[in-house]
Amino acid sequence: MNGERTLTGRKVLAIFAASFGLILAANLTMAWFAVNTFSGTVVENSYISSQSFNADRDAQEALGWHLDVEHAPGSVTLRLKDDAGQTVRPESLTVVVGRPTSSRTDRTLNLAPTPDGYVAAVPLEPGNWMVLVNAEAQDGTRYHRRENFVVPAPE
């Protein structure tokens, strides 16, 4: 015996089992994240939603509303304007803020009117965020808009 190590069948089996186990662990981890994060569901039934999509879009565009979302530390400001630049006050307004890839952090904002829009006190951590706006005009036309924004990390 001169101290050489020989490659035996047991060692080859152990190397094979460890390699296979590592690949299996990585696949199971990726599968867990795929199932437990963003599902990709935007509407419950895409066929039903598609039947009125063009009419809904045309009606929303006819309103001529433009949304501007602005984040400041501790607050989110929304400005909803018409084509003439006048502030729009919809009949109903619901705003949800959350992460674009998960609904776990979604929260409905408590909006306070301002002269040129609405403001909500909401502390947001750095990263990507989205705002979902659902409103209804005086004539019953629905307005739906999603805006993404980034909250920068403190310097």
Output the number of helix runs.
3
Mean pLDDT reading: 90
Spatial ordering of strands, largest sheet: 1-2-6-5
In which range does the helix fraction lie?
A: 25-40%
Give the tally of β-strands.
8
What Rg, in angstroms, do the CA atoms define? Answer: 26 Å
The stretches of 5 or more residues where confidence is low (pLDDT under 50) are: none
Distance from first to last alpha carbon? 63 Å
The largest β sheet comes out as:
4 strands, antiparallel
Which term fits the overall shape?
A: elongated
Instruction: Find the structural class using helix and strand composition.
Output: alpha+beta
Order of helices and strands: HHHEEEEEEEE
Strand content: 25-35%
Description:
The structure is a single chain. The chain has 155 residues and is an alpha+beta fold. It has three helices and eight strands; from the N terminus they run αααββββββββ. The protein has helices spanning 9-36, 46-51, 53-63, and strands spanning 66-72, 75-81, 92-98, 107-108, 112-114, 117-121, 127-136, 142-151. The strands form two sheets. The chain has a four-stranded antiparallel beta sheet, with no helix packed on it. β5 (112-114) and β6 (117-121) form a beta hairpin. The protein is elongated. The mean pLDDT is 90.
Keywords:
single chain; 155 residues; elongated; alpha+beta
Topology:
Blueprint lengths: L8 H28 L9 H6 L1 H11 L2 E7 L2 E7 L10 E7 L8 E2 L3 E3 L2 E5 L5 E10 L5 E10 L4
Antiparallel strand pairs: 1-2, 2-6, 3-4, 3-7, 5-6, 7-8
